[in-house]
Design goal:
With about 100 residues, this protein is of the alpha+beta class. The protein has helices at about 55-65, 75-80, 85-90, and strands spanning about 20-25, 30, 40, 45-50, 70-75. β3 and β4 (about 45-50) form a beta hairpin. The termini are far apart. Strands 3-4-5 form a three-stranded mixed sheet, covered by helices on one side. It contains three helices and five strands, in the order ββββαβαα.
């Protein structure tokens, strides 16, 4: 990644972020990924695990996105289901109508 460039040939800026937090939910080790955040107008909603290392991740994200309010949201159960804050903000396709019989 350090040698990669964007479409205009500019080098990418690499920002180190603390590793995802791991917690136990319903007897299963579950990863709460800090990168699964959602950027909104003026803010960033970041999944957190309610652990001390969350603060470091929030600080890194706040420094990388100045001018936005960074808010951590406890996301253990969302992560247990296989997603994160960004995942649950995405579109859900409408149901395909059942075929009608003739």
């Amino acid at each position: 990644m350090e040698a990669a460039t964007d479409a205009a040939g500019r080098r990418l800026e690499i920002i180190d972020l603390p590793q995802s937090a791991f917690v136990e939910v319903a007897g299963r080790e579950t990863e709460v990924g800090y990168l699964n955040f959602y950027v909104a107008n003026g803010g960033v909603v970041v999944p957190v695990a309610d652990l001390p290392e969350d603060e470091g991740a929030l600080a890194v994200i706040a420094a990388a996105l100045p001018g936005r309010k960074v808010v951590g949201v406890r996301s253990r159960v969302i992560a247990y289901g296989g997603g994160g804050v960004h995942c649950i903000t995405q579109q859900v396709p409408s149901a395909v109508p059942a075929a009608t019989s003739r």
